[in-house]
Sequence to fold (79 residues):
Amino acid sequence: VRGYQGIHVIAAAIRSAKDPTNRTDLRDALAKVQMAGAVYGQIRFQSWQNLKNQVVPPVYLVQIVGGDVKLVATGNPPY
Fold:
């Protein structure tokens, strides 16, 4: 799924780049891509934990005890 989604992200960047054969234009267009992801929610590039141009998926940690589901923690990025 990640590879499939990655191709769609790259295609969106190519379509929106001023000159898709220019690596700087393509890089800048890629950084501006925002789209719905197939599995991981909204895809957009941002800084995260001192890293640049990261796509940070929302993550939920749940615990199931006796059939009851309890949300333990969330790793939702600060959008």
Observations:
- The mean pLDDT is 84.
- The two ends are 23 Å apart (CA to CA).
- The chain has two helices and six strands.
